[in-house]
Write a structure and sequence with these properties.
Elements: H1 2-12, H2 22-51, H3 55-77, H4 80-101
Length: about 100
């Protein structure tokens, strides 16, 4: 359990540093948390949609997974505002198109 907790803390603190304000720290951690929690379900849906031969939906899910990983890299680089905008816009677009493809 400590193994999981240690890596969870590492992932949620990507892009943070000790001299940040409390509000900025929590904002960055929240964006990281959303990106991390989007990774596993979208990757699973990608595989399930490939199996069900729904290639457009699987492409949307894979794109969402790639965007979530990109958000984590942007957070690591310190581009926090761009990461927040990318997470918001990409999730809106992918969920919107995913709704109409079904």
């Amino acid at each position: 359990m400590n193994y999981i907790r240690r890596y969870w803390n590492i992932l949620t603190n990507i892009g943070t540093h000790p001299d940040m304000s409390y509000i900025d720290l929590k904002r960055i951690q929240m964006v990281n948390l959303i990106a991390i929690l989007c990774l596993l379900p979208t990757l699973c849906f990608f595989i399930l949609n490939i199996i069900d031969q729904r290639y457009l939906l699987s492409t949307i899910n894979l794109s969402n997974t790639i965007c979530s990983i990109s958000v984590l890299f942007l957070q690591y680089d310190g581009k926090h505002n761009f990461a927040k905008a990318m997470l918001l816009v990409s999730n809106f677009i992918f969920f919107f198109f995913g709704c109409y493809v079904i």
